[in-house]
């Protein structure tokens, strides 16, 4: 039995579509399928059920995957011992992060990170959704809610503020917005309701019951672009919108939404030098960006 095949089993258990595993591993789908069949032959077990949604673990496959995760954990602990003893932080870290934070706050800081940590590679998975740390889709992830399960270390990173923003041209050609009730007469921009991945993103319900966006996208960057081009009024994080010269705040005293960012780190890599380095870097970045995050700059 090949340990690499067990690792591949774990990859497929976490990402049932072989095309996704191929993208992550660099192997083609045919090779992945052949190696899974080889593992089933070696063990004399049917590990996966092939379904339209991908490879789903059978009960036997789940038992093998649980044992393989234990081996993976032990291997990570050995690496962590080496990292603790070694003077050099090196390797690769995968960081899951919300799209806006990753694109507008973390990505611009990568030159500074590269200068501080020349031997660490950092994958920033900035998507409209979450990547799972417990499922090892990422080593660490910045989330909108505190995870309640899984082998993760969790801490609060920062509060942040969202407010209403619009282009001055949109406001000039539309009815005045003097109170929250006036928003019902305006084109609002927000998330596609059935694609909202966290209750923390249901901003319009916090502002007033019944507010419904006219223009929607699961991407906060797309919503920002709609607002800055004059399509309507959007709820945007202060750290994205406040420095945009195309936008002004709407009802700044009446509408101020507070949310928080939480950092989850998998226990297997929490103590490694490379993850500690990313942790320290994020702490410094959030500290230096506090005014942008909480709405005072």
Automatic annotation (TrEMBL):
GO BP of this protein: DNA-templated transcription
Transmembrane annotation, as ranges: none
Keywords: DNA-binding, Transcription, Transcription regulation
InterPro entries, per the entry: LysR-type_TF_proteobact-type, LysR_HTH_N, LysR_subst-bd, WH-like_DNA-bd_sf, WH_DNA-bd_sf
GO MF annotation: an example: sequence-specific DNA binding
Coiled-coil segments on the chain, per record: none
Similarity comment: family membership: Belongs to the LysR transcriptional regulatory family.
Name listed for the protein in its UniProt record: Uncharacterized protein
Source organism per UniProt: Hyphomonas pacifica
